Structure formats: C-alpha cells, structure tokens
Amino acid sequence: MPPDPNGQPQPHHRLLKIELRDDRHGGVETNFSTRSTGFQWFFSFLAAFSAYRDTDERVVVLLDEPGTSLHGEAQGDFLRYVYGQLGPKQQVLYTTHSQHMIDPTRYETMRAIHDQATREDPSLGVVITSVSLSADPKTILPVEAALGYSVSQHLFLGSGPLLAVEGSSDFIFLLRMSDYLISKGRTGLDPRLAIIPVGGIGNMSSSPSWDADCPSARSSTEPRPPR
C-alpha cells in the first residue's frame, strides 16, 4: 500500500471473508455476513469456544444470556452442545430467562437467583438457591415453562402407550435414568412412550377413559375369543 500524502506508511487492513456452502439446499454458497444474526452468533460461538473443549487447561466458561437471537429449536441445539461436548471438559455457567435453554431432566444443575433487596433494606442483596417449584413464581417461570413444554412434547409426539406418573419429579427421574442407561450402552425407555405427570392419585379418576378411547382396548365384560 502506498504511503499517505505525508509520506507515512499506511496500516495494512486484513479482511476475512467466509463463504458457506449448504449441501442440503443444492450446494448454495452464501457469505457469512448475509446469514441471520442467530446463525452468525452460533457459528462464532462454536468457532471460539471449541478451543476450550479441546484443551486440557481448566477454565470456567461464563455466559450471560447466551443464544437470545436463536429460535427455540436452535437454543436446544446449543444446550445439547454445552452438556454433550463443552460441559464434560469445562465448567459452564450461564444465565437465561428462556424455557428452551433449560433441560428439566438436569434439575440438580439449576440455580435460582432471587433479588431480595428492597428500598427499605438494600443489604438483603441477591440470594442464589437450588430451584424449588414452591419459590417465587416469577423466578422459576422458565423452569415451569420448560417442564410443561417437555411434558407436552411427550403427550403429543408419543405414538405408543401412555405411562401415568404421580408428579413432575417422577417424570424427571425416569428420563434421567433412561438417559443414563443409554449412555452406558444399555436399553432406555422406548421413545414412543409418553410419560404424563397426573399430579397425584386424585387426578386418576378419568384414567379408564384412556383405555376406552384406545382401539385395542377391550371391555372386561366383552367375551374373549377362544384360544
């Protein structure tokens, strides 16, 4: 680059241009800068933080409201990356208000942040506790929403039998046990099984109607075919 009008050397500017090829859509090539904000964030995150996944140096990864520009499904992909690849090598702490950034089956890893300070007593400050569904409803709203979404997915996507359990804790325990067994190469729950927390035995009065609506159900008074 030629010198400036004063004869001083001008700084060299380097430009990194990234082209992406999408084989799912006929090999279309696009410039990275033309992609969505969410895609650019996710791509940049993977490029930057994969270095921590592949190093033996111990670090603590702190993320403040990550993935806010991602849609719900992509936030789930981000969460699977954190738990499946980055988390096993490094400690990851992140804050979120999104239900899609919460895995209800990993209940023990969650913490609730309560701002208890008031104008009368600012010294109360902020308190961090384990998540309790009996806590401040506004604080645990994302957890309740994540749990409700997970249950609804089981209800509407399950194509097999229904398994009624008493409460949400049973729902979480069964999913975690199944994930653990699968990770050890053993058999987990059938993915077609829909697990439904019913909230106690008092809500089970309508359960016979589930069988009655099933085409394969047979009344106990209906004669059985001969063997």
Automatic annotation (TrEMBL):
<dbReference type="InterPro" id="IPR041685">
    <property type="entry name" value="AAA_GajA/Old/RecF-like"/>
</dbReference>
<dbReference type="InterPro" id="IPR051396">
    <property type="entry name" value="Bact_Antivir_Def_Nuclease"/>
</dbReference>
<keyword id="KW-0067">ATP-binding</keyword>
<feature type="region of interest" description="Disordered">
    <location>
        <begin position="206"/>
        <end position="227"/>
    </location>
</feature>
<protein>
    <submittedName>
        <fullName>ATP-binding protein</fullName>
    </submittedName>
</protein>
<feature type="compositionally biased region" description="Polar residues">
    <location>
        <begin position="217"/>
        <end position="227"/>
    </location>
</feature>
<dbReference type="GO" id="GO:0005524">
    <property type="term" value="F:ATP binding"/>
</dbReference>
<dbReference type="Pfam" id="PF13175">
    <property type="entry name" value="AAA_15"/>
</dbReference>
<keyword id="KW-0547">Nucleotide-binding</keyword>
<dbReference type="InterPro" id="IPR027417">
    <property type="entry name" value="P-loop_NTPase"/>
</dbReference>
<feature type="domain" description="Endonuclease GajA/Old nuclease/RecF-like AAA">
    <location>
        <begin position="25"/>
        <end position="102"/>
    </location>
</feature>
